[in-house]
Amino acid sequence: MREVLINTNNPYTVYIGQDLLSKCGEYLNRVKQPCKVLVVCDDNVNKLYSTCVMDSLKDNGFDPFKHFFKSGEENKDIKNLEAILETLAKNNFNRSDLVLALGGGVCGDMAGFAAATYMRGMDFVQIPTSLLAMVDASVGGKTAVNLSSGKNLFGAFHQPKMVLCDIDTLKTLPEEEMKNGYAECIKHAFLADPTLLSKMDDLEDLIAQNIEIKASFVCGDEEDRDKRTALNFGHTIGHAIERASGFEISHGKAVAIGMCLELKAMGFDKVYEQLKAELLKYDLPCECELNFFDLKSELMNDKKISGKYITIPTVESIGSYQLITMDEAEYTQFIKRALI
Questions:
Q1: Using one digit for the tens of pLDDT, what is the confidence trace for 251-277?
Q2: In the chain, at which end, N or C, are there fewer CB atoms within 10 A of the end residue's CB?
């Protein structure tokens, strides 16, 4: 069992270990008095884990309800967000109750955003069941849904009360989904700590160290206005690739491609080759067939653009990052170098 304290304005603990789902009610009692709990999950996770979680909640004095939706990034939208909110309202939830996100990043984003907005805010807990969600989305308080114009454009910052990472859930995760998580681990290694690359086989240690790295960026910059921006390495082009492919290219693979193309555009050839070598170890892609003209509209509607400027994180050597602010003309040339 590992514990990582996320020392935000409202601190919370991430627990990493085995057999945590069956004990989730016990852990929840540490941070919340018995209340109504809405367990939000997708249809796949519903079949695998919702009964275990709801039984544990009942056994520990909570009154659980459930809402599930069809899996897939394409379903992270306002329609499904509204359905969660309606479930809360129809079952008379109030601000003293709790939303529990059980699943991957899509579930965590939607459930967290519902908790942030229902009655102007209620508590929520993250129980991520994918490696990607464990090392990235479940920590830091970013919640959002996609709009037709772009990814994660409608959202809020809302930190969880607690995060439980049960590594037993990774036994049912398809290999392709594990690769998505490895891409984010490699991103963290190149940004902040190359020793992470030697720990990819020890899941408990890998998850704990990734969360510690993410916490080092999040704490002190919860609203993503300064150093936390570095965690967007690969995401500028990566998010555009996801959307332009109709989410056929998964988040982790899109970020892998994005990191490579962004380093290529910066002309950092040595670290670009090092990154490619690490990604290929996990059968992650380094390029795609989409070009500047395929991605231009997505890239020019990036939520990170502020006024006429955008800040792009990059890595000149492993473990050392830079934040480079570009105006519109410089940004256009940057993405052309990456994609043409």
A1: 999 999 999 999 999 999 999 999 999
A2: C
Confidence of residue 304 (pLDDT cuts 50, 70, 90): confident
Q: At what angle do helices 328-339 and 235-244 cross, to 10 degrees?
A: 70
HSE-CB for 8 with a 13 A CA cutoff? 25
Write down the pLDDT at residue 245: 93
In sign, the C-alpha dihedral spanning 5, 10, 34, 114 is: negative
Bridge partners for 39 per DSSP: 66, 100
What are the beta bridge partners of residue 65?
Answer: 38
State the Cα–Cα distance between residues 54 and 38, nearest whole angstrom. Answer: 10
Contacts of residue 89, defined as CB under 8 A and 6 or more positions apart, other chains included, come to 118
Select from 138, 146, 143, 145 the least CA-distant residue to 157. Answer: 143
175-211: buried (b, 16+ CB within 10 Å) or exposed (e) per residue?
eebbbbbbbbbbbbbbbbbeebbebbeebeebbbbbb
- Taking alpha carbons only, the member of 234, 326, 232, 244 closest to residue 292 is 244
Identify the residue whose tokens are 């998964």.
250
- Under 8 Å between Cβ of 334 and 326: yes
Q: Report, as an integer, the average pLDDT of 190-206.
A: 94
DSSP state of 62: -
- The length of the chain in residues reads 340
**In percent, how much of the chain has pLDDT > 70?**
100
What global pTM score does this model have?
A: 0.95
Long-range contacts of 175-178 (CB under 8 A, 24+ apart): 176/250, 177/104, 177/130, 177/131, 177/132, 177/250, 178/131
Residue with tokens 């670290």: 271
